[in-house]
Amino acid sequence: MTASTEIAPERGWRRYFDDPTPLIKQAPTLIAVVIAALLIVVLPDFPLTEMAVALTGIGIVLAVTVLAAVLGAQGIRDGWLVMMIPIIDILSIGLLRAGTGGSQSLFTSLVLLPVIWIAAAPGFRHVFIVAITTSFVFLMPYVVDPPSDTVSWLRAVISPLVFAAVGAIVNELSRLQRLRTAQAEALVSERTAALAANVEMVEQVRASEQEYRELTESFQSLWKSITGQAVIATDNDGMITNWNPGAVRLLGMSAEDAVQQVRVDRFFPPDVLAQFADADDAGDASSGGLPAGLAALFRKADSGLSVEADVDVATVAGTTVPARVTITPYQNAHGARQGYLLVITDETKAVEVARMKDQFVGMVSHELRTPLSSIIGFLDLLQDDPAQPLTDEQKEFVSVIERNAKRLLNLVGDLLFTAQAESGRFPLEREDADLREIVESAVASAGPQAQREGIEVLSEVPAEPVRMSVDPGRLGQALDNLLSNAIKFTPEGGSVTVRVDVQDGMVRLSVADTGIGIPEDEQGMLFTRFFRASTATRNAVPGVGLGLTITRAIVLAHGGAMDVSSQEGVGTEFRILLPLAPRTEALRLTDLRGA
After folding, report:
1. Which listed residue, of 96, 166, 338, 586, carries a Cα 20 to 30 Å from 436's Cα?
2. Is the Cα torsion angle 285, 288, 289, 293 positive or negative in sign?
């Protein structure tokens, strides 16, 4: 408290001198002139040669002091009007000097006070002002009483030069002082800005830390809340670095034990990983100690491909659990790969549902196919019985019964096939076949239907044989489905074209029509079982929505891919892409299950 009260007055006085007003600058000259006036009055024997001249000089100093006070009150600190005050002071002191003995006056040195004021102003021109005004002061007495000796004239010439030299020194010192002050102010400003920037940066860091803390807490909360799936993070060598509660529940190992140098292949049986190994994999040594199958999956993930597989995983207790595994690489803040993220979903219930579905389909197949076959057989006997021939009306009725019984039998067969396709368990009887012959056969089979509907069916196949290892029956079934759909969805007078192209080790089969087309928002669901496009229901096109599901399953079983493009009112094109060389069975099964 005491220190503050002592410092405050000092700062209060100092501020008057940091940026002085004209009155403050005038004060030394005023005080000196007042003292001179007192000496003249007090000392009776003071050498006073011209009383009127001396009093005039004193009066002018007092007058310009009033002017300095007025300018200071108006806030004027610089300019030519302010600079006139010390110039007038010099001339006034010259009058005082002339009236108090001239060259012998005691008050000659008072000139130095306004000289310093003028010389301290910015600019070297003020040194010349000092030289001119002081010359006038020293020569003023000689106007009335010129000296007869040379020394007095020399004194009148040298004295202004001395004052000019003093003024030059003061001017240079003032310039240097202003320069240092400006540099100091710039440094203070720079440091103040730097300090402000540092404070702002500190605030940003604190805000970032708070945001990072909140994100970390949110991530930890989210990580701990995932209990339905096992989420496992590994480094580039497959060593586990993070283990969520879902992994604890599914695989039976605590998070503390899992991060103690445990490699992720510990939870995959060797025969499961072996099916994913490339044919040219040399084993663990070539993949940094990883099993060949796991290394192959990691490489596939690194290439940007989706890695999903239905496999069995091993628990700590020694049991196996059917699961769906996805693998994706993750990166650090610099974009470098840091490891892999495995998401394992328990498929036990899904497998049980699939088993029950297969059981149900098998039961339906047994319970429906057998009586339907019996009905169709007895209908044949009824139609061919020569002992009891049928009338024309009866034959028509029997024909309707037989046609619908066969349709129901085909529907049951399609249901059984789709169930087998979804489980990836329907066999392919591959043989070397010419794809052109399969296409021509399918076109020929579709001929009668196309002729009834008034549709032209065209085929564009290469001149050379296109030999592949395929199941001709299944592939022909896929083409039959596509041709049948194309004909059903094309108005009379339209056309259907089947094309075969070979390029870069792949064969592309396409079936294009000029039909009613399919809405764009429905095209992604075309291969879903029992799905029918709105254009089909709107135009009363018959079908149950199984043909495309069966076709896609056949294509995937051959290691191929299938896509579609369509535009309402223009037509639809289905494309089948098949590899000339068949893929391995393990990859084929994986594709079927993933589909």
Report:
1. 586
2. negative
Task: Using alpha carbons, select from 329, 327, 263 the residue that is nearest to residue 297.
Answer: 327
Indicate the residue type of 87.
I
- The secondary structure element, H or E, covering residue 572 is strand 571-579
Distance CA 495, CA 450 (A): 9
Let me know how long the chain is: 595
What is the rounded CA–CA span in Å between residue 236 and residue 337? 8
Question: Quick one: which H or E segment has residue 564?
Answer: strand 561-567
- Measured CA to CA in angstroms, residue 349 lies from 177, 316, 525, 557 at distances of 89, 20, 25, 25
Distance CA 237, CA 507 (A): 39
Closest CA to 123 of 85, 171, 159, 52: 171
Q: Where are the beta strands (DSSP E) in 216-357?
A: 229-234, 240-243, 307-314, 320-331, 337-346
pLDDT tens digits, residue range 106-145?
Answer: 888 888 888 888 888 888 888 888 888 887 777 776 665 6
Kind of pairing, strands 240-243 and 229-234?
antiparallel
pTM for the structure as a whole: 0.43
Q: Give the position of tokens 């002339």.
A: 98
- Dist. CA 215–CA 165, nearest whole Å: 73
Q: What is the mean pLDDT of residues 319-343?
A: 88
Q: What is the pLDDT of residue 12?
A: 54
Note the pLDDT of residue 591.
45
Between CA 260 and CA 254 the distance in angstroms is 10
pLDDT at 286: 46
Q: Per residue in 431-445, pLDDT tens?
A: 888 988 998 988 888
- Nearest to 141, CA basis, from 90, 104, 88: 104
Environment class of 16 (CB within 10 Å of its CB; exposed 0-12, middle 13-18, buried 19+): exposed
Rg of the chain over CA atoms, in angstroms? 55
| Structure-token pair, residue 247 | 């992994």
CA-to-CA distance for 489 and 515, rounded, in angstroms? 5
Distance CA 284, CA 4 (A): 79
Residues 542, 548, 551: CA angle, nearest 5 degrees: 130
Residue with tokens 């191929």: 560
- The widest CA-to-CA distance across the chain, in whole angstroms, is 181
- H or E stretch at 434: strand 431-434
Q: What's phi and psi for 191, nearest 5 deg?
A: -70, -35
77: phi then psi, degrees, rounded to nearest 5: -115, -15
Q: Quick check: 457 and 498 in contact, CB under 8 A? A: yes
Identity at 60, one-letter amino acid code:
I
| 3-class secondary-structure state, position 573 | strand
